[in-house]
Amino acid sequence: MADKDIVRVRFAPSPTGALHIGGGHTALFNWLWARHTGGKFILRIEDTDLVRSTKEYEQTIMDGMTWLGLDWDEGPDKGGDYGPYRQSERLDLYRKYARQLMDEGKAYRDGEAVLFKVEPGQDVSFDDKVYGRVEVMSDALKERDSDKLKDIVIIKSDGMPTYNYAVVVDDHLMAISHVIRGEDHISNTPKQILLYRALGWDVPVFAHLPMILGKDKKKLSKRHGATSVYEYRDMGYMPDSVFNFLALLGWSPQSRGESGQAGDEIFTRDEAARLFELSRVTRKPAVLDPDKMNFINQEHLKRLDPMTRLAMVRPFWEEMGLPVRNHEDAWLAEALTLMAGRGRTAREMAEFSDYFVAFEPVKARWDGSDISEDRKPGLREFFAALFNVPEWTPDALEACARAWTEERGVKMKDYAMPLRFVLTGMKVSPGIFEVAVHLGRDEVKRRLEHYGLA
RNA sequence: GGCCCCAUCGACUAGUGGCCUAGGUCGUAGCCCUCUCAAGGCUAAAACACGAGUUCGAAUCUCGUUGGGGCUACCA
User: Fold this and answer.
1) Rounded to two decimals, what is the model's pTM?
2) Which residue is nearest to nucleotide B25 (CA to C1')?
C-alpha cells in the first residue's frame, strides 16, 4: 500500500476549554513533524465527555490553532477521507468494535458498560521515539491499593466510548502513523497497546513530549498566569513568537557547523519545519520562562516590516482610545520604526508611543509644573534656536542643540529632557530630535505653547 | 501505596566514553556608546543532584539513593 509510508499525525483536543499552552505545544510538534515529512496533520475533536464539551470551545480551539499558524489537512470543518472527525459522530464505529471484542470473548458487558478483559503476564512494552524503550507488563494495570488486575472500561454506561478505547479505534481507522502527545499519556499507552492487539491492528509509532511546567515546577495551571494562547495574543505577543517560543520547549535546532555553536534560536514556522527532528526532542519537563518569551517576541517585532508591525500595534492603540485614524498609516508605521527595540510586546509598544498618536496622553501624565519659572526663559531661548534651524532633520537639530549648549557651557541633558517631557510626557523615548522631527514643527510648537515654552 | 518517566548554569538547552579546564541562548552584573530608555558592542559570575561501580579514561554506560513529575476515573 502506497499510503503505508506517509506520515499522518493528529492533534486530538477535548473541547472543554480554550487552547491551552500545553495543547498548543503538542499541536505544534505534530504540525512540525507533518510539515517536515510532507505528511498530513489531522485535527480530531474528542468530545465524548458530554457534560464538559461544547461547540464553542471547539471553535475556540480551532481559532487558537489558526492564530498560531497551525493549519490542518483534515478535520471537522474541512472533512477528509477518514471522517467524521468528531468522536461524537463516530459512535457506531466504537460500538461495532466493542461488539467484535465481545463476540470474541475479549470484552464483556457490565451493566450498560463494556469492559475489556486484561490478561496477566503480557508484555506491553514499546519503543517510544522520544523516551526510548518503556518496559511494562500488563500485570501493572492494577486497581488502586490492591493486587487485583483492573479491566479496561471501553464503553461507558452512557454509551460513549472511553478515551483509551476511542483513541485506539480512531488512530487506527484514520491511519495515524505517529502518535505524538504529552508525556502524561505514557502511562496510558500500555492499555492502548492491549486494545490494538485484541483488535488485530498494528500499533502506530509513539512519541511522547515533555510536559510544560510553571515556575514552581508544577504542571502549568491558572495559578501560573497566562495558560491559554489567547491570553498571549491579548498581551501583545505575536503568533510567530509564541510559535517560536513553544518550539524551543523540548527541542532545539541542530547545532550548525563543526564549531559546535548553537543554531539560531529565532526562526520562522517554515524554518522550524525544515529543521525539526523528532529524534532531537528532549525528555526533561520544561519550565516556561516569561523573560525568554519576551525576548523572542521583541526579536520578531524587530524583524517585522513597518506596515505589519503597525497592524500588530494598531489594535492596542485603538483599545486605549487613541485617534489612530487621524494619521496616515505610513506615518504611524514610521513612528513605530523609531520605537525599534523599545517594548517587548505590541501592547508595550503601543503604550510607550501613545504621544505620537495624540497630545492628550502627554497632558494627562505631565502638567509641566516641575519646570520652575526661572528656568523657562532659558528653555524658550533654546527652543527658539531649534526653530531657527533651516533643515528640520534630527541631525541638524542635534547639531544645533549641541552647539547652543556648548557655547553656553551648559549640559545638553538639561535641555533635551524638558523637551522630551513636553513632547512625550515621559522620561524615556527614542532620540528626542527624531521624535520632534517626526511630530513636525507645527505639532512641536503646539505642545511647547501648551506648556508656555514657546 | 503500586506502576511508569525524568535529573547539565536561575530558565531553555548543546553534549550520545577521550574534541569538556562543559558550549550556546534568555535572564543577571559590569564596561562602552549616549539627550533618556531600549537596542547594539565587549566582559563577568553561573551547572554535569548524590553515592558506588564498569573503563586506561565518564556529564555521557550500570546499579542504588535523593529529588521532581505522570498514571492509577464509566475525564481526556
Assistant:
1) 0.94
2) A265
> Edge-to-edge, what's the strand order for the sheet holding A8-11?
A40-43, A8-11, A178-182, A205-209, A126-128, A132-134
Q: Residues A40-61: what's their mean pLDDT?
A: 94
Distance of C1' in B13 from CA in A219, Å = 20
A203 CA vs B12 C1’ separation (Å): 33
Per-residue pLDDT of A160-187, as tens digits, reads: 999 999 999 999 999 999 999 999 999 9
Classify the complex by whether its ipTM is higher than 0.85, answering yes or no: yes
Pick the CATH number of A360-450 from 3.40.50.300, 1.10.10.350, 1.10.3720.10, 3.90.1150.10: 1.10.10.350
Grid cell locating A270: 517554515
Is residue A222 part of the annotated active site? The answer reads yes
- Nearest nucleotide, CA A342 to C1': B38
Provide, in whole angstroms, the distance separating residue A125's CA from nucleotide B51's C1': 30
Q: Which residue has the cell 527614542?
A: A430
Largest CA distance in chain A: 101
Q: Tell me the three cell numbers of residue A102.
A: 465481545
pLDDT, residue A3, reads 53
- Picking from A211, A161, A162, A169, the residue whose alpha carbon sits closest to that of residue A186 is A211
> Nucleotides on strand B with an atom closer than 7 A to protein CB?
1-8, 10-16, 23-27, 35-40, 68-76
CATH domain A90-209 topology: Rossmann fold (3.40.50)
pLDDT bin (cut points 50, 70, 90) of residue A84 is: very high
Record the cell numbers describing residue A52, joined without a space: 464538559
Tell me if A90-209 shares its fold with A360-450. Answer: no
Of A394, A403, A401, A380, which is closest to residue A430 (Cα–Cα)? A394
